Structures are given as structure tokens and as C-alpha cells.
Amino acid sequence: MESAWDSFAVELIEKHQVIKYLPRQFNNEIDVIKRLAAVPDLCESFRSWLLALPNVRPDGSAKSNQFRERGNDIFKSKQNNHLALEAYSKAIFAAPKGSEALALGHANRAVLLNRFGRYQEAFDDCHLALAGGYPEASRLKIFFRQAECAQKLRDPQMLRAVIRDIEEVSVTRPLSGAEKVKLSQWQEALESMDPSSFDGSESLFKKSDDLPTLKEKIGTITGRYVVTVGEIKDNGIIARESAVSFVPVYDSLSRSTLPSFDCQKCAKVNVIPFPCATCGRACYCSSKCRQQHEALHRFECFGYRKHLWHLIGIAHLGIRSFLDGFGTILCEIRTRRNSAEAWFQELARECEGNRFAEYGRVFRLVTNFDQMKRDDLLHYSMAALMLAIYLRECTAFFPERCSPFTSMKQSELFVLSGSLILRHIGQLVCNGHAISELRAALPSAGDCLEEEGFHLKPGMLHRYFTSSRVFTGIFPRISMFNHSCDPNIRNSFEGSRLTVYATRPIDAGEEIFNCYGPNYKLMRSCDRYTHLRQQYCFVCNCSRCTAGDDDFYREVYHRLACPGCGKCFVMELVPEHLTGGFSCQVCGNKISCSWNATIVGIVESDEPYSKSLLQQCLSAYEECARLLIGNNQTKLDILHGIFDRFLPFAGLDEFCLDSLKKLAIEFVSIRRHQFGRISLEYIVGCFFLIDLLAIEHCSSGGFTVVKDRAICQMMTDFREALSIVGIENRTFILRYLEKYVKPSSEVNV
Question: What confidence score (pLDDT) does residue 744 get?
């Protein structure tokens, strides 16, 4: 869907006839930005548009108070503590900076977090409540709540600081007898704590693996590519790299009051959110991460308030890359007089001897501007110019960077900034990596969690987690891997850290191949050709493309068997086929899809569950399975709908449970064939089967000891596949699995 920015850019291009100012042949980014900046009234149009963008957050505290009062009502009525927690988070997002509403939101949320055992987040909430506008008369109770959290965390430094605060307050406000007892207990607890026993540091990767030696080469046709010097075994680690820059992905579900709960500093997902108090949009997992990101975020904060980053897509990562890397080249820029002189060749030098570290690696990635369609280049250039104007008009970026000791004038720094942003946008179009994870549903989207704590109810795993693209990042080293539609690697993310594994043995001297999206299992070669040509400006010559596998995807995932002649043929079914039928491509007879109307009618109906209703649906599915054979994609979609309709009733009778388990085995098998067992798609596909086993556990009253060989193997594969999800999500899922299903290691597979 076209955003407000896209519409405005198109309007300006037509109004000012901007295309005629763009050079016929791309020279460099500086040339483009200078040309566009010289278009009469164009910069002023951008400035007026930026300043006229409406604020996302409501003015005042009314909305925040409304959310907080709703949370109080839910909490008092004991309806659902997780719904109350969500309401308090919404109150925090909506509250103005420094307001009493913001302090009250943090204080109220701390009560629930403490109850849920999330002591660090509760401590942070208390700290922010006290640092804000929390009423003076009630501050002592917040200190006591903080002390309780510090004791649970066994953090002597935190506890000592809170005790000191309580003692200071007690000078003017005498403690009650009960409060004195509590304070004395904490003082005793502090004395018993070993200062060396607490280590506040945290590492996502405690194990240091020896990585294989990779070598970059240059080919006359393929350009730069990477080979391994030594042999790499199947599933062996190939490379590790942290994203130089990353930004959250914005989709159609992004809400004005509640963005995704993902940390913009450390890239943790599904966190207890600590948003920027000014914009209420940038989200963090803790007050510590928020504080550490402030030096960069202050230049993006205005854009968040205006919902700008949601509007411009990949261009957000373009300006983020610029802001992340600008400090690296600042000293060099201060010695230059103009943008052309500052566009120094050292940035693009080979990595050996490149004094600009990771930013130098980013800078030397390709942009494909010289091969890009003129219209595409124009749209990216318009975005870059607009963002340079944003930095000049909406932030203090240029005044801070142009000190009295800087030779470069603001006008020249403006051109340089727009040029760098444009270069990064072009690089990210063909080098950006999607960071995918499991996204947790909000409580308001489904009653999935147990009342006291973050534990799933049985049968709710498939409703709680979905596979989602959460960030887009830039990994300059791993971006050097060329594309293949049949790659020999797979990616695994842990926050913003990417680890690359081999999907098969790789011989010494063999090239490392990534997949840029078009995979031979998921897309026909003609569609892959179009996608790669349009976005990446090259024609793929991998083994799958040169072998001419046009029919592989259709043969495997769109194979049908005619009920009349019994012959098999390949055909991609569209909605019109499923509603009106179609003809056999072998015998020409009409094939009815009346079974589809039956299944859809049952799946979408509000009719109460009954065994006969399920039997009717299963009979229709048997007709479907006789027509859609093997790993048919349409069959996969139909199975998904059946699970959504009947899985909540699987515990009511044995027939429902057993029938759905058989279908789940088929569903997981198709997902494995299509995406591979080490994939988020396979993991999410297994959720239906695991939920059915959890329901069976609750029905039987004991451990579900899996004896079916196929299910045992799927559970083994599932546990191995969980290595690609973040540690928090992995721990959460394993806790659910081990609670309801006997570990597969104890079953003879």
C-alpha cells in the first residue's frame, strides 16, 4: 500500500518535473543530491511537509490516564493480569514526558511485574516513576517496592542504593513499625550478600568458536565473492557478525499507541517495553538500553513523533546507517572544505588498511545505481534529500557537527549527508538482511498466558507465536556472499548477531552462497529471474537456474490427481478454481471443488462444536486430499484453517484429538519438505502438533509419552530447530514443551 510519503514524493516529482534534473547516466551520489537540491522550491516543499506532519501521540495526559484506569479496573476485578499489564504499557506509551501520568503508569506496572517475577523490569519501572512526577507523599512505597526487587535479584549495589534512599526519606517522614522491621530485614540481607556473587554483565554468546578462514575474491563476471579456505562440515559454523546498523520493521499492524515490543539497542524481541519518554515510539528492553541509545535516538526522535520512519521504509535504515557511522569519519570531515573533497577514496578501499572500521566495510558495498531504473533512482534520491532536510530542519545535527573548528560549512555538510544517506539506501536495497524471530501476541489478541506469570496455557502455543520479520539490518561481511537459489548456508539470529551455518559439506576453495529471497523450493525460475533482476540487477546463473527447473516448484507444490482419469498433472489453483471448479489438463473432464465450500463454510461458521460437524469437515478434506496430492501448497492452507477451527475443542473427545493429530503430522511433513527442518516456518508448523500433545497431556492427567515414530522424529527435529530462535523465546518454548510432552531423548526414535 502506498504511504503518505510515496504519494507526496510522486506529487513533487510531477509538479517540479524533477526527472529532467536527474543525470541520464549516474555519476555519483553527490552529483545527484546537488542537482535535486537545486530544483526550485523542492527543498522548501520537503521542509513544509516535514513540519506539517501530525504528531502520533495525543496531547496531554488524558489518554494515558484512561489506559491506566482501565488497567486498574482489570486488576481490581481480577479479570486478567496480562490485560492489565498491557493497559499500563499503553499508559506509559501515551503519557507526556515528565508528567505525573507517566510516573503513575510506571509505578502501577511495577506492581504486576513484581508479581510476575520480572524483578529487573519492575525495579526499572520504580526508578522511572521516582525520577518522574510521582506524588511526593507516596514515594516511600515505591522505594520499598524497589528494595523488594533488588533483594529478589540479589544485587547488593541496587539494594544498598535503595536502602540509602529510604533512610533519607525517613528523616522527614518517620517509618512505621512494620516499615522499620522491613528495612531492618533488608539491611541484614545486604550484609549477607557477597558482592562478588553478582555480575551485572550479560553475554548472548558465551562460547567462542573457531571460525573457518574465508577469502574474498574478484571474478570478471560475478565481481567480489567469498570462498572457504578449508573444508566445512555439514551444519558447521561459517561466519558470525553483528549488525552494524538495524531498524525495526513497520507493517500494516503497527499501531499509533503501541509499537512492537522490540529493543532498538540490543534487538531483543517481545520485551517489557521502555519507550522513549519524548516520542513514545522507540522501544527498549530496559532503561539502560534506552539511555545507551539516546546519543543516536535524539536525531530520530522527532521522526518517531511524526511517524516518519513508518512511512519511508528501507530509507530509515539508510539514515540510521549514516548516524551510526558518521562519528567514524567526523575527524576526517572536519579537515575538509567541501563535500566533493570529503568524498574521499579511503572509505571505499579494501578492508585491509581501511581506517574507517565497520563503516568502511558498509561504504564499499554495491549500490547498483548505475544499473537501476531511472524512476527507482529518483525515488531513492528524493528520500535521501528529504532526510538531509530533516536533519537540518528538525534536529540539532548540523549545528553540533559544524563547530568553530570545522572547515566544512553547513551547506557542504548538508550535501555530504544527503549523499551518504543516498548511498546507504542503495546499498541496503541489495544488501539488507531481514532479521526474523517469533513474535508474541498481545494479551488483547488472545488469552494465551496463565494468570500468574509468563507461562502458556495448554494448547495456546500456535496462537501465541507467529514467525515475523522484526528488524532489517546490515551485515557488511556476510553481505559479500553471492546469491544462489539453492544456497549452501542458513542464517541464525540472536538479537542483532547473525551466525551462518553450512547446510551441506563445503569443500575447500568452494564458494559460499546465500539466498537473497528467491529460493528454488518456493518460487519458479521465471519469477526468481524477475525478482533478482528488478531488485538486485543481475541474472542468476546458479545450478538450479542454469538447469532450467521451471517446473520444480509447480511439480512439487501444485500437483493434482484427476478423480476421473486418475492421471496426475500440475496446476496452480487460484480462488476461482476452488469456487467454480476447473478442467483436467489430461482428460478435459470438469473437476468439482465443492469440498472447498464445505470446509470454508464450517471453518468460518459460529456453529457449536460437535463430532458430526468435525466428521463432515474431515469427509470433505478426504476429497481434497485425493485431488491435492503430495506436498500441495493449497492443501497446507486448508489444513491451517481446520486447525484454527477445531484445535480449541481437541480436549473434548478422543476422536477430535486423534483426527487432528493425524492431520498435524501431515501438515508438519509438508512444512519440513518446503522450508527445511531448521527454519522458523518448520517451527511454527510444529506448534499445532505440540499443542495437541499438550491438550492430550491435560486430558490424560500425566505426561504425554510419545510413541509414534513420526511424532518422535518431529519433536527431535523441533528441538534442534529451536537453535535458530532467540534465547528468551527458546527457553519459553522448551519450558512449555517439557511441561506437557515427555522429552524425545527418553523415547526410542
Answer: 47
pTM above 0.85, yes or no: yes
Beta partners for 240?
499
Beta-bridge mates of residue 511: 227
Condensed to tens digits (0 to 9), the pLDDT of residues 18-41 reads 999 988 888 889 999 999 999 999
The C-alpha atoms of residue 273 and residue 269 are separated, in whole angstroms, by 10
Q: Where does the pLDDT of residue 198 fall: very low under 50, low under 70, confident under 90, or very high at 90 and above?
A: very low
HSE at residue 726, side-chain half, CA atoms within 13 A, is 24
The answer to whether residue 511 scores a pLDDT higher than 50 is yes
Residue with cell 551485572: 200
Q: Which residues neighbour 664 within 8 Å (Cβ) at sequence distance 6 or greater?
A: 643, 688, 689, 692
String of b and e for 709-732 (b: at least 16 CB within 10 Å)?
eebbbbbbbbbebbebbbebbbeb
Give how far Cα 603 sits from Cα of 244, 459, 585, 626, 660, Å. 46, 18, 30, 20, 14
Judge residue 107's burial from the number of C-beta atoms within 10 Å of its C-beta, 0-12 exposed, 13-18 middle, 19 or more buried. Answer: buried
Instruction: Identify the three-state secondary structure at position 590.
Output: strand
Q: Report whether 123 contacts 111 (CB < 8 A).
A: no
Residue 36: name the closest of 374, 380, 382, 322 by CA: 382
CA–CA gap between residue 9 and residue 6 (Å, rounded): 5
Q: How many residues does the chain have?
A: 749
Nearest alpha carbon to residue 339 among 390, 407, 392, 405: 407
Q: What is the 8-class DSSP label of residue 235?
A: T
H helix or E strand, kind and range, residue 744: none
Mean pLDDT of the chain: 88
Cell of 115: 508479581
DSSP 259-316: ---B-TTT--BSPPP---TTTS-S--SSHHHHHHHHHHHTTTHHHHHTTHHHHHTTHH
Alpha-carbon distances of 100 from 64, 128, 139, 273, rounded to whole Å: 10, 11, 12, 19
Give the closest residue to 104 by CA, choosing from 115, 114, 91, 93: 91
**Largest CA-CA distance found in the chain, in angstroms, rounded:** 94
Out of 100-104, 404-408, 419-423, 562-566, least confident range: 404-408
Write out pLDDT tens, residues 321-372.
Answer: 999 998 888 777 777 777 766 565 556 555 545 566 778 888 888 899 988 8
